[in-house]
Amino acid sequence: MREIIAILRGITPAEALDVTHALLEAGITKIEVPLNSPQPLDSIAAMVDAFGQSAQIGAGTVLEVAQVAQVAATGARLVVSPDTNPAVIAATVDAGLLSYPGIFTPTEAFAAIRAGATGLKLFPAFKMGLDGLQAMRAVLPAKMPVYAVGGVGPEGFAAWRAAGAAGFGLGTALYAPGMAASEVGTRARDAVAAWDACA
Q1: Is 75 left (phi over 0), alpha (psi -120 to 50) or beta?
Q2: pTM for this one?
Q3: How far is Cα of residue 114 from the mean position of the Cα atoms in its chain?
């Protein structure tokens, strides 16, 4: 599986299925709808119903424990956050969902790991830089995946993977509100090609 998470911030329920189909056709099978998007739970539920057997679909910008239950009720499989909140992580794991909390320091990373995180979202990655990730990877458990999110596009995949990133979260590099599904598909294919080139 390609470790690319599509971040569909701002997507509407009317767009969700066409955009999801375009992503899957291109080879991206991890998708999050941030909860600060319009009617996010409606989009997630529709996406899960249509594509839940072939994709890991979930929510981003999950900040509160109560939101975890709302996301789980849609049938979603993953929860992504911009911060490290042990209570949110624990609730996510207890609900049987994959947990990707946002971290920026070793302290946050280890707090997330102790709370049961599935993987770590390094955010904003461009502020940490390649040397920062390399330094952090030296102390993190080898099997704990780190996803570079924020300011990292397909052109940087090879360098970030060499520095220790296991995967990436792509937002505006893949999708912006109102973008045609065909354009999302084109961008997704470019991202997949960049991933495959350094696999």
Answers
A1: left
A2: 0.96
A3: 20
- Taking the CB of residue 36, how many other CB atoms lie within 10 A of it? 11
- pLDDT tens series, the chain, 199 aa: 899 999 999 999 999 999 999 999 999 999 999 999 999 999 999 999 999 999 999 999 999 999 999 999 999 999 999 999 999 999 999 999 999 999 999 999 999 999 999 999 999 999 999 999 999 999 999 999 999 999 999 999 999 999 999 999 999 999 999 999 999 999 999 999 999 999 7
Q: Which residue carries 């624990």 as its tokens?
A: 90
**What fold, for 4-197?**
TIM Barrel (3.20.20)
Active site residue 143: no
Please give the Cα distance from 73 to 26 (Å, whole number).
28
> With the C-alpha atoms ordered 169, 174, 179, 184, is the resulting torsion angle positive or negative?
negative
Tell me if residue 32 is catalytic. Answer: yes
Residue among 30, 32, 108, 155 flagged as catalytic: 32
Contact 32, 60 (CB under 8 A): yes
User: 143: which 2 tokens?
Assistant: 């099997």
Catalytic residue among 3, 108, 121, 143: 121
Residue 112, both tokens? 């997330």
Going by the DSSP 8-state scheme, the letter that residue 100 receives in this structure is E
User: Which residues are 98's β-sheet partners?
Assistant: 78
